[in-house]
Amino acid sequence: MGFDEMDVDTIWMDGEFVDWEDAQIHVLSHGLHYGTGVFEGARCYDTEEGPALFRWDEHVERLFQSAKPYEMEIDHTPEEITEATLELIERQNLESCYIRPIAFYGYDSLGVAPGDCPTRTAIAVWPWGAYLGEDALENGIEVMVSSWRKHASSQIPTNAKTTGLYVNSLLAGEEARRNGYAEAIVLNKEGNVAEGPGENIFLVRDDVIYTPGLSESILDGITRDSVIEIARDLGYTVNDTASLSRGELNTADELFFTGSAAEVTPIRKVDNVEIGNGSRGPVTEEIQQKFFEVVERRTDEYDEWFTYI
């Protein structure tokens, strides 16, 4: 669905609510030319207790932390970002939506050094269903291991959500789609499993859950952290510092992606090799069902994760 097909008409930009089509920047903005922006992706869920933002405080904190390596000063406090987001969702009359805050260096000079380029900040919200398709949540997706490697944390900060870094994700994801797959898996420079282009990955073997550790050049995903906590509370052993080889993907009992957009998405095939029985596995299903029970507030557990409108 394109933006012009959705019933959204307002964006918050640099402290003001503006019409969607008026949220524009100069073509010589630093962020456009050098990828010097940081962003977040979060969700507001339509819950039994009303619209609620999932782990919003953690998303806002990561936005500000992502800006630090680039010496980017966001000209608004976390509280102002939160207030603007809540009002923006209310103005759009949305009960559930995806939320995209972004901060980036704007227009002043065009050297690689940002110099006096101002930091611009914007927030957009819009309806967005299952990122990889509704069918994917139940039946899983087919993925390929990309020929593109994940950049190392010694090269560029991997724990910052930086706009320019997602060229790496685009290359991997588009390679997969050209070859008939729904998504990619990216290896790190050592050849171990890192993550998906926009997702963290989990492996299940003998009812033990493994996910690559932060040393594997992954993003410390907020949904990843949530799923780790949910899985442990369900009684599973979770190794969240794992180093996984490419070959272990093919011999896994189950695989699944997590992310704000992907939520909990099973993986049924890797490079045309069937994973487990070729469908959503029982561990994935239990975690996925618990995750949606939590985010839809059909349980009182984890209430501290939610910001209600």
TrEMBL record:
A GO molecular-function descriptor: branched-chain-amino-acid transaminase activity
EC number: 2.6.1.42
Catalysed reaction equations from the record: L-valine + 2-oxoglutarate = 3-methyl-2-oxobutanoate + L-glutamate; L-leucine + 2-oxoglutarate = 4-methyl-2-oxopentanoate + L-glutamate; L-isoleucine + 2-oxoglutarate = (S)-3-methyl-2-oxopentanoate + L-glutamate
The keyword Amino-acid biosynthesis is assigned to this record: yes
Pathway(s) of this molecule: Amino-acid biosynthesis; L-valine biosynthesis; L-valine from pyruvate: step 4/4; Amino-acid biosynthesis; L-leucine biosynthesis; L-leucine from 3-methyl-2-oxobutanoate: step 4/4; Amino-acid biosynthesis; L-isoleucine biosynthesis; L-isoleucine from 2-oxobutanoate: step 4/4
A Pfam family per the record: Aminotran_4
Swiss-Prot/TrEMBL keywords: Amino-acid biosynthesis, Aminotransferase, Branched-chain amino acid biosynthesis, Pyridoxal phosphate, Transferase
Cofactor: pyridoxal 5'-phosphate
Biological role stated in the UniProt entry: Acts on leucine, isoleucine and valine.
UniProt similarity note: Belongs to the class-IV pyridoxal-phosphate-dependent aminotransferase family.
Protein name as it appears in the record: Branched-chain-amino-acid aminotransferase
Taxonomic lineage from the root: Archaea, Methanobacteriati, Methanobacteriota, Stenosarchaea group, Halobacteria
UniProt gene name: ilvE
